[in-house]
Predict the 3D structure of the following.
Amino acid sequence: MSLPDFQLELLAPARDADIGIEAVNHGADAVYIGGPGFGARSSADNSVSDIAHLVRHAHRFSSRIFVTLNTILRDDELEGARKLAWQLYDAGVDALIIQDMGLLEIDMPPIQLHASTQTDIRTPEKARFLQDVGLSQIVLARELTLQQIAAIRAQTDPARCTLEFFVHGALCVAYSGQCYISHAHTGRSANRGECSQACRLPYQVVDDKGRFVAHDKHVLSMKDNNQSANLAALVDAGIRSFKIEGRYKDMGYVKNITAHYRTLLDALIEERQGSTQPQHFPLARASSGSTTFTFSPDPNQNFNREFTDYFVQGRKDDIGAFDSPKNPGQPIGYVTQIGPKWVELESIVADTVLHNGDGLCYYDLQKELVGLAINRAEAVGKTKAGGTQRWRAFPKDEVTSLKDLRKGTEVNRNRDVDWVRALDKKSSDRRIAVWAELERTPDGVALTLTDEDGNTATACATLPHNPAKDPVANAQLLEQNIGKLGATIFVAAHASSTGASDLFVPASTLNALRRDAVEELETARALALNRLPRAAAVEPPVAFPEDTLTYLANVHNKAAHAFYARHGVKVIDAAYENNEELGEVSLMITKHCVRFSLSLCPKQAKGVVGVQGQVKAEPLQLINGKEKLTLRFDCKPCEMHVVGKMKTSVRNQLNQAAAGGVVAAPVTFHKTRPLH
């Protein structure tokens, strides 16, 4: 069973349980978090007991907890992964996010399974296959357009499979699961949670004749994803789960970005409720309650590399953060004077306030970002025109060490300490609406609470039916008291004492009734929250869309091999991490095209007089120190392959580790089906 098609799920990340709790408090319908192993983020592990604590909090609001179990696994790791899956199931986890199809061949608990971004879902055929083998939610490739998403929705069943899509956060330049540079150069596999992020490095770009095309540019570094403007279009294309990237991110990021998308999705839900358009069917949240914030959410306040909506609206030429992979911040002003220990700035917005401890930055003459952290900031007056403020900033570093800082330099702020401190405090309030009704019973009174999901709880008290002196004033007082839900997770949408308005009920009795009814209602909610069911695979087993798999399929254990064989695949190569690919291969496949971004695409040259026919998709080379990679361009699907081979030293190191028993020896697959 999938998410009901009218419900929208906001799926937030959590590095740890405390951040996960705040994600729920700030409006997340679901949270994804890493367990104690196999979670594709090597430094974002959490104990099962901590996750159980998060589950209990989330389930109070009918929010769900998904745990990542999405690395590819060696044969010797399958049993550990199986045991962990059962532990997480017993802890109340709602679903596991997986990449390795070998998990479908072993004794897993009856827990719902979701397809990780690492499964690289770009086609209707791949999406339909994963649905048919029992995956209830699948996260589509970030590179898809609205039309491609709609095509996948048309070929899958909304009642069986929810479509999930990343709407915010860092972008991996490769198709997820299709990057092996880290393993080839360092022995650290991205598919096993240890990416070295070669995509964020600066490169020299050299053409096939040895000429420099670009110098020290971060040509594989993408801007950050931001689909704020596309949410309605994504809903119409079939997306129902809206995923925020960021299992490495801090508390402030998760609070702010969750609140931002909660606000946008709530506005969309409200808009569609009143829409007269026939295609705009009513929408709803996937969990309970409503959320208010003590701050105005603003994605620009968190670390970002500037924003792009990537390929959702088609290919664009401004998706890269080529100058720097760092956070450039927001423009705040220009340098007007430089003193021996201070820098004077003129702000470009009248109400700009600098704080002690703010982080500033600027670009030097080589377009490299230079940090300008300030210890102290002083206002030094306003300009005559427009009331613009002038500030004197005393940097943490010596002014003479700040490269290329001069009069007229534009300065950005990439850390507003006042904003950071605001999010260090309690910054949200999530409450579930209830209707409270006080009634007369034969031997006293009863308080019934009914929540927005239809759950009810009743608490009774025995007392004499003494009449109130002033029934009208008494009714108001009773309703005021039964609606005081204070620090609970509930808020009274309506309180009625009609059935007992003429009775005198002591405040102490009402307080006890309210406490008991709230406790009973929480129990009723917990009992009403059903576990997400594990989807049954289609029988007989459906055929995989292809009958041959290369290393790109990431098959790293015999169980995964058996899975694909059972689904009709004839030839199955081992994963790149098995170290069997000796020569040059595609170490990354990406929709991003360096030639296009540098205006060297043959398609861009079409029709340009004097240029047409001269620009060809010839290879380019990326150079970073001793590292060299070749860029090859597959123009028909409009994709780029980053080609290279595994370092001999890395291969020897990995083979020595396997031979010494430090890690298990990789599994060996037959390149062709054995005859017997």
Observations:
- Residues 172-221+584-676 form one domain.
